[in-house]
Amino acid sequence: MKIPVIKKLVETQSLDALTAAEEALMEEQPLAIEVEGDDEGEQLTHVIAAAWILTYMNDNGVDFKTALREYTKKVRVSIS
């Protein structure tokens, strides 16, 4: 997971575009947007994170850093 890639996606893509990219990756289809990543798994991680963060920002009226902090807390809990 690369924070700069996630930040770029949050700043440049809509939630609809991120959702479409997630679906395309799941179906092994070409992406309509550029998503950096070493492989499709990392690209999917970036897209899912960006969509979650963008939704959290919109729902809670917070900035990127706050939403990112909440996302990383969620990830840490899920892997511990």
UniProtKB/TrEMBL annotation:
InterPro entries found in the cross-reference section: DUF6952 (IPR053810)
Superkingdom, natural source: Bacteria
Protein name according to UniProt: Phage gp6-like head-tail connector protein
Source organism of the structure: Pontibacter amylolyticus
Phylogenetic placement of the source organism: Bacteria, Pseudomonadati, Bacteroidota, Cytophagia, Cytophagales
